[in-house]
Amino acid sequence: MTVEIQSNDFIALADIALRNPDLQRAVASGTRGGYAKRAETMFAHSREHGEHMRQQAAQAKRRALRKLPDLLETAERNLIANGWQVEWAEDAAEANQLVLDIARRHQVQTVTKSKSMLTEELGLNHALEAADLRVIETDLGEYIIQLNNETPSHIVAPVMHKTKAEIRDIFIRELGMEPTDDAEAMVAFARKMLRQDFLNADMGISGGNFLIAETGSVGLVMNEGNGRMCTSMPRVHIALVGIEKIIETVEDYATLTQVLPSSSTGQKLTVYTNILNGPGRTDEGDGPQHSYVILVDNGRSQIYGTDYAEALTCIRCGACQNACPVYRSTGGHAYGWVYGGPIGAVLTPLFVGLENAQPLPHASSLCGSCKQVCPVDIDLPRMLLDLRWELVRDGRSKTGWDAAMKAWAIGMTSPRRFALGGVAARAGQHIMGDYLPGLLGNWTKHRDFPDFAPKPFRQLWKERAPIKREGLK
Amino acid sequence: MALPERDSPIGKPVSLFVTCIVDMIYPDTGMSVVDILERVGVSVDFPPAQTCCGQPAFNSGYRDEARTVAKHFFKAFADAEVIVTPSGSCATMLRHEYPSLFTPADGALYDEAQRIAAITWEFSEFLVDGLGIRDLDLSLPAPESFAVHDACHGLRGLGLGGASRQLLARLGKAELHDLKECEVCCGFGGLFSIKMPDVSNAMLTNKVENINASAAETIVTGDVSCLTQMNGGLSRQKSAKRVVHLADVLAKALPGERS
Questions:
Q1: N or C: which end of chain B has fewer CB within 10 A?
Q2: Cα–Cα dist A7/A90, whole Å
Q3: Does the CB of A435 have a partner CB in chain B at under 8 Å?
């Protein structure tokens, strides 16, 4: 694994985010904006229509997941028929090596990249730069992230954690931009800088939102047009696609390219919705001469056989991040690996091992918003609960909790012990006052705790007029 | 996972599952539930062996302990025909999670989990969806303004949301206002609030800001655990506003002395 994993430090990283007022402001507005626009678009016709689209999308992805081995073979056949060269990579090292080999084969010096979360998993940019290739991220958000030597904090809005003023300062510092606070001027400046890179690039690298098996095509959606430049202008194009991105038909693509932008940016359709069919034909004036698809596993086939397989149907829309009140408070970097938010809290332990991401299943109040907005209806809260169970089963839960839970269960299996517990709690509260000790002190750190009642309900019930109670029996 | 179908509870006696928090901290809320249920002609019993549903253990991954407590619940409610509980999250535990804690291999326990799931109602949905009552024909002693906070498990676990608003809309002298982000979690999340207190507090602070900005004097909710979190934050952050359980609002409108 070439990407640093810091997920066990979630609480410390969250703390850093909570103390960063710029990040707080930027993430609060970015997530809420996305959440509101999603609802507007998904339910533009009616709530029922939106729910129906979600179910249709979920079915398309689940059907593809069930048929995954067969569809991969079909896809490979049809990709090759379209002129793609198909490679398979089991892990990050293999995928990166394949890209390097292709780059060497075609004497590549400059690489333009369109946005791809998979390549973040692979640490591809580092691998290419280590081999003295020049790599330029061309999605505006990714471009800013790369200039500032960071990683994306959100699946579709990589620089969501930064304010406009911070981005301005990055452009001034890294590229010598004339100071301006006008967002349009800043975008125009970045566009001008990128234009030369697009023209100079020898190779373009993209991800793939979908891999359409029946036609052997890479489905790619974007808003900035940069992806089209990366996939059509350079001599060589490589699409790195996770094996779970496969879908069966073009019709499924039509379904999914509606729910994906609706869920992520609140658009009915992205500005550019592409179906890429390999190299430019001899009678075409443009298009790459060499087109590659690298199908990447990197842990996916291991998830495929587990109860968490449905997590592989994720279409990376970011809706769960926008909806999650934890993500809204911490941003994505706190999750300590590539994916933040609810989907990250599930995928990270599955990809990097639960032992390397122990706090993540607990980084949720189980409020259910993620499942509610998920365009393919992944039961993320259920998976978080299952991961918590695994932590306990594997004995990875803190021993203090183990003992407390066992004692608690004993208390809760007898009304007498339960009542005694109540009396003890009330007495303890009198002695300790407003600030509780130990783990319970984590409650009174930010909140007052109510008094235990002098008489519990069970006693009030007993003391009710007996006639009234008799009459009910 | 689909929720189990329920038969109509009309005419059946109700076994009150008051919940552990109401029992120990908010017994008056339990009494309010009893008073409202009796007001609409339901006979209420309190199975005395009851303790907790086991949710704290279940949600933190301690499924063996959750099963142990669930088995105790089965014994305590063995005779229940209908269970009503003043908590959306405990109702979700009974309706959603009990069936998932036991498999057909558990035999009678599995059957009992299914049975409990199919006779359980959260308080407001019992009144509105179960009994078909939208108007309790009650009026508050003095005008008061309210806004509803949708507790997460009730809203997204059980699909509630409308019931409490319908009851409040027809409560005399009650004025209903909006609460911004009323569907967003308050940050409680059970042991989440203790395991990650600072993240929980960020969510709570956002909720407190929205409550303070609401035109309503009082916030109404259907879960005392969320209520404890929100009131804990309102109190600590020196807000004059408070969150009250729906049953206590409705019971305030009952005529005469409380039993």
A1: N
A2: 23
A3: no
Nearest CA in chain B to A32: B181
Taking phi first (over 0 means left), then psi (-120 to 50 degrees means alpha), and beta for anything else, what does residue A10 get? alpha
Residue ranges of chain A with per-residue pLDDT less than 70: 1-2, 397-399, 465-473
Distance, CA of A466 to CA of A462 (rounded, Å):
8
Chain A interface, mutation test: which of B194, B211, B231, B248, most A Cβ atoms within 10 Å?
B194
pLDDT 10s digits, A140-188: 999 999 999 999 999 999 999 999 999 999 999 999 999 999 999 999 9
Per-residue model confidence (pLDDT) at position A81: 98
Q: Note whether B231 contacts A: Cβ–Cβ < 8 A.
A: yes
Q: List pLDDT tens digits, range A286-320.
A: 899 999 999 999 999 999 999 999 999 999 999 99
SS3 per-residue string spanning A354-375 = HHHCCCHHHCCCCCCHHHHHCC
Give residue limits of the domains in chain A: 7-302, 320-393, 403-472
CATH topology classification for B139-252 = Rossmann fold (3.40.50)
Q: A 347-366 residues with CB below 8 A of B?
A: 359, 361-366
Asked if A436 reaches chain B (Cβ–Cβ under 8 Å), the answer is: no
Question: Using CA atoms, how far apart are residues A330 and A335, in angstroms rounded to an integer?
Answer: 9
- What are the start and end residues of each CATH 3.40.50 domain in chain B? 139-252
Helix (H) or strand (E) holding B252, with range, is helix B246-252
In chain A, which residues have their Cβ closer than 8 Å to the Cβ of B56? 405, 408
Residue B44 contacts residue B34 (beta carbons within 8 Å): yes
Cα distance between residue A214 and residue A254, in whole Å: 14
Distance (Å) from the alpha carbon of B81 to chain A's nearest alpha carbon: 13
The CATH classification number of A7-302 equals: 3.40.50.10420
